[in-house]
Design brief:
Length: 153
């Protein structure tokens, strides 16, 4: 599963073919939009990140570090660029139009539990979920992550 392409990388025609094929089990995992936005800011725009000025200049045309309030104003302004890092996930997966094609909806903040449920539903838990991940390839794909994360999400 590590090397499988994401659905959006397959192109619209192939993606729709897969979504409409009943032999595929389709699932989507959503992340809390507020922690996702904060995580984006901390990772791409805050002081101390090597890419802060690069992203600010490339996306907004500003060559200075943005405060979080400035960032929020920029991403919520009318006509603001809709970058994949803050574009609503419902838009990315076209959930309003394609809701009926998905068989599983998971919460990213509950990934160990929901990931196992999804792989179990797909009949893939033993093969892909139970082990085979991590440095020694002996960790569950959806083990609890104890690594430090800026937003704990």
């Amino acid at each position: 599963m590590r090397n499988l392409p994401s659905l959006y990388k397959l192109g619209p025609a192939r993606a729709m073919e897969i979504l409409q094929d009943p032999s595929f089990i389709k699932g989507v995992f959503f992340r809390d939009p507020f922690s996702r936005l904060l995580s984006c800011y901390l990772d791409k725009f805050s002081a101390g990140t090597h890419r802060a000025n690069k992203y600010s200049l490339k996306i907004f045309g500003d060559n200075h570090l943005l405060s979080f309030p400035e960032f929020l104003k920029k991403v919520t302004a009318a006509g603001a660029p809709m970058n994949v890092h803050w574009r609503p996930q419902a838009d990315i997966c076209q959930i309003e139009e394609l809701f009926h094609l998905y068989s599983f909806f998971g919460n990213f903040e509950r990934l160990p539990e929901h990931g196992r449920a999804f792989l179990t539903q797909a009949g893939l838990w033993k093969e892909f979920g139970e082990s085979g991940w991590g440095p020694g390839e002996n960790v569950s794909m959806f083990h609890e992550n104890s690594a430090a994360h800026q937003t704990t999400a």
